[in-house]
Amino acid sequence: MKHHPELIPRRGELIAWACALLVIGAWVLLARLELRVSPLLILLGILLGIAAVSISLGNWMDRHTTLTLGPEGVSYRNGLRAVRLAWDEIQEVRVRQAPWGERVEVIGQQAYFRFYTLGEVKAHGKIMGRTGFVEGQRILERIVENAGLRETGPIDSGSGYSYSRR
């Protein structure tokens, strides 16, 4: 069965690009008018540009992410990498708390991938967006069950737990 993550609204990405372009535009305008351009303005423009690019890359990866559970194993693709693990190749699954939902790491002998369970971004009691896989908990359960793993206890001072063959 093929799963896709929830997609966050692109408003944040648009705001990041608008801020970056505004600061870079001011930098270019001041330079053309042969006025002194503060190094802080240049640094701010570069940092905002990097932030906008990274947000765009994250959104692009989310839009190209699929997690497929099949009879032979699990496959994960996100536009930049593709991982395929047979059920018997999965050595460990680690689950850690994340700001929204849980971060699940599926670890094989030669490769690994990470996905997030459903998380809701809230402000003033209102849901502003959702992130992660809606069926994330069910996906985790199926991976643990089909790979024949068992819970091995807490990790990271109790902030997470793991499953393994050991």
**Nearest-integer average pLDDT:** 92
> How would you sum up the major sheet?
5 strands, antiparallel
Q: What is the oligomer described by this structure?
A: single chain
Helix content: 25-40%
Estimate the strand proportion.
25-35%
Instruction: Assign the structural class, choosing from mainly alpha, mainly beta, alpha/beta, alpha+beta, or little secondary structure.
Output: alpha+beta
Low-confidence stretches: none
Distance between the termini: 28 Å
Encode the helix/strand succession as letters: EHHEEEEEEEEHEE
Number of strands: 11
Layout: helices, strands, pairs:
Blueprint: E1 2-3, H1 11-32, H2 39-63, E2 66-69, E3 73-77, E4 82-86, E5 90-97, E6 102-108, E7 112-116, E8 119-123, E9 126-131, H3 136-147, E10 150-155, E11 160-164
Antiparallel strand pairs: 1-2, 2-3, 3-4, 5-6, 5-11, 6-7, 8-9, 10-11
Short description:
The chain is α+β, with helices and mostly antiparallel strands. The chain has helices at about 10-30, 40-65, 135-145, and strands spanning about 1-5, 65-70, 75, 80-85, 90-95, 100-110, 110-115, 120-125, 125-130, 150-155, 160-165. The chain folds into two domains: about 1-65; about 70-165.
What would you note in describing this structure?
The strands form 3 sheets. A 5-stranded antiparallel β-sheet has the order 7-6-5-11-10, with helices on one face. The chain has a 4-stranded antiparallel β-sheet with strand order 1-2-3-4, covered by helices on one side. A two-stranded antiparallel sheet has the order 8-9. Helix 1 runs antiparallel to helix 2. Strand 2 and strand 3 (73-77) form a beta hairpin. The longest helix has 25 residues, at 39-63. The chain folds into 2 domains: 2-63; 70-164. The chain has helices spanning 11-32, 39-63, 136-147; strands at 2-3, 66-69, 73-77, 82-86, 90-97, 102-108, 112-116, 119-123, 126-131, 150-155, 160-164. The protein is of the alpha+beta class.
